[in-house]
Design a protein that fits this description.
This protein has helices at 2-13, 32-39, 94-105, 276-293, 310-319, 352-367, 378-384, 386-389, 392-410, 423-426, 443-450, 452-472; strands at 15-17, 22-24, 27-31, 42-46, 49-53, 59-63, 68-71, 74-77, 91-93, 111-115, 120-124, 130-138, 141-148, 154-158, 162-168, 177-179, 185-193, 196-203, 207-215, 218-225, 236-241, 254-259, 297-300, 324-331, 341-346, 414-420, 432-439. By secondary structure, it is of the alpha+beta class. It has 3 domains: 2-124, Copper amine oxidase-like, N-terminal domain (Copper Amine Oxidase, Chain A, domain 1), CATH 3.30.457; 130-241, Sandwich (Immunoglobulin-like); 254-472, 3-Layer(aba) Sandwich (Aminopeptidase), CATH 3.40.630. The strands form 6 sheets. It has a 6-stranded mixed β-sheet, with helices on both faces. A hairpin with a 2-residue loop joins strand 17 and strand 18. It is globular and about 70 Å long. Mean pLDDT is 85; it is low at 228-249 and 371-386. The structure holds zinc ion.
């Protein structure tokens, strides 16, 4: 496939730049100082901000009074800015830094993007594969035209109050943020990763959408008020409806517990033959009781010994409009002495061990997924989690609270909060963690995991963590 070849070619020639960044809402902020030292800018302080100049003497001005940047005659409004007394620590979103550098260095064929998944800048010498991204209005319908290279295929993903147009291997050198019209959408944000680009819209009202492809190089998406009758457009091949809701402010009430594996997939198997799928189901049922006692509404993805596909699991969570997602598993190692508990949130694995654990758990969906579901595409999966990046901080915090909860109830070795790319966490639009309770490969822990008492301790530890998370976020 053309796009796969393109993707590989691009990947091989990416140059990456790691920088320090901080988080503000969903933005990654990078300071003037950090950009200057990474990309070779000089900078001077001006009365209203700072002026950066590159090796060719091109100027980039940031005005802290009007929150505006000026580059090559273009004036760009910044939606977020972190002002500090020390001007070199002035910070703006990494996506904007990338956009400004693309404007500055277009003629040199240097295209810099911020990778929202891996949190670094990457550079390509290739002209962007998306030529145009145009938003226009036709009465109360929003028309988005995307012209792109042959072989690129836009896909649509719907979450609570946003709709994302994802284009694998797509790179767009235009603005990273577009202010909305105040009627239909609040803003559109353009997010890159090495895998491609997502055009993400936040809507102010319920909308339906249709997507059409007019030829190999032009795709059109129309968003219209949900109440409008959906019929008649000949170009359409996809349609859907989303509901708006306020994900981040509503109280935590509904929790989805996902006992891993099940049915034909036993999960890890202990030395005495204990199956992970049975242990995690027993713990999940106890956790359900424990959380209900503490006033939560709980939904189990499975309550019996049954295989569930990846889609089935994440759909249960998303359709329930749940507030938290907790997947429960048992760990396994070649070494019989490996022991303890670890809680994961979704991010790029930083250690070999984290990668090994994620591969083992993900195999559940690649090895046993034979019932007509599309084979998993690792690159598409990377994108799905762009939903999870919104909940990154919350998921990490939740993981920490649960980790502490389990350790203090059970006395298990604390292996710490960890991060890796678990498929089951990718598609859920809420704070989500995966708990590796203890090691089935460790004879002592296998014995404990079989005991009802110990299962209760784990369940109570997880519930303690959820309660602490809830009060930490005061909701
Ligand atoms: Zn597992």
């Amino acid at each position: 496939m053309i796009s796969t070849v393109l993707y590989i070619a691009l990947t091989l020639t990416f140059k990456t730049y790691t920088v320090r960044y901080s988080m503000l809402r969903s933005w990654n902020l990078v300071t003037v100082d950090e950009i200057a030292s990474t990309f070779g800018f000089d900078y001077n302080f001006a009365s209203r901000g700072v002026v950066l100049s590159d090796a060719q003497g091109n100027l980039l001005t940031i005005d802290t009074v009007t929150s505006t940047a000026k580059v090559r005659g273009q004036s760009v409004k910044l939606p977020v800015m972190l002002k500090r007394k020390d001007m070199k620590r002035l910070a703006i979103p990494a996506d904007f830094w990338a956009q400004f550098m693309r404007i500055l260095w277009k003629k040199q064929n240097r295209y810099i993007y911020w990778d929202v998944l891996n949190h670094y800048f990457f550079e390509t010498p290739y002209a962007p594969s998306i030529k145009q991204f145009l938003i226009t209005h036709k009465s109360d319908t929003l028309v988005v035209k995307i012209s792109h290279e042959r072989g690129l295929l836009p896909k649509i993903f719907v979450s609570r109050d946003t709709i994302k147009i994802w284009i694998k291997s797509g790179f767009y050198a235009g603005p990273c943020w577009i202010e909305g019209d105040g009627k239909i959408y609040e803003f559109a944000r353009i997010k890159h990763s090495k895998a491609g680009v997502a055009f993400k819209f936040r809507f102010l009202r319920d909308v339906g959408y249709r997507m059409g492809r007019f030829n190999d190089t032009l795709s059109v998406v129309k968003f219209y008020p949900e109440s409008r009758k959906r019929s008649g457009s000949r170009a359409s091949n996809v349609a859907g409806v989303r509901r708006s809701s306020t994900a981040h402010t509503r109280p935590i009430k509904v929790i989805v517990i996902d006992p891993g594996h099940g049915g034909k997939d036993p999960g890890a198997i202990g030395r005495r033959g204990t199956k992970e799928k049975d242990i995690v189901l027993a713990i999940a049922k106890k956790l359900k009781k424990e959380l209900e006692k503490r006033g939560f509404k709980v939904i189990l993805t499975r309550s019996r010994d049954k295989y569930l596909s990846l889609n089935e699991r994440t759909e249960i969570a998303n359709n329930a409009n749940a507030d938290l997602f907790i997947s429960i598993h048992c760990n396994w190692s070649r070494s019989r002495v490996a022991s303890g508990t670890e809680v994961y949130f979704l991010s790029t694995a930083k250690t070999t061990w984290e990668r090994v654990v994620a591969m083992r758990e993900n195999a559940s969906f690649t090895k046993y997924n034979g019932n007509g579901h599309k084979k998993l595409d690792p690159i598409d999966d990377i994108l799905l989690d762009m939903a999870q990046t919104e909940f990154l901080q919350e998921s990490e915090d939740l993981a920490g609270f649960i980790q502490n909860g389990i350790v203090s109830r059970t006395g298990l070795l604390n292996r710490g909060v960890r991060q890796a790319g678990f498929y089951v966490l990718y598609g859920v639009f809420m704070p989500a963690v995966l708990v590796e309770t203890a090691f089935l490969s460790n004879p002592e822990e296998e014995r404990k995991l079989r005991s009802s008492d110990f299962q209760w301790k784990i369940a109570r530890g997880i519930a303690d963590g959820v309660v602490r998370f809830k009060s930490a976020y005061r909701r």
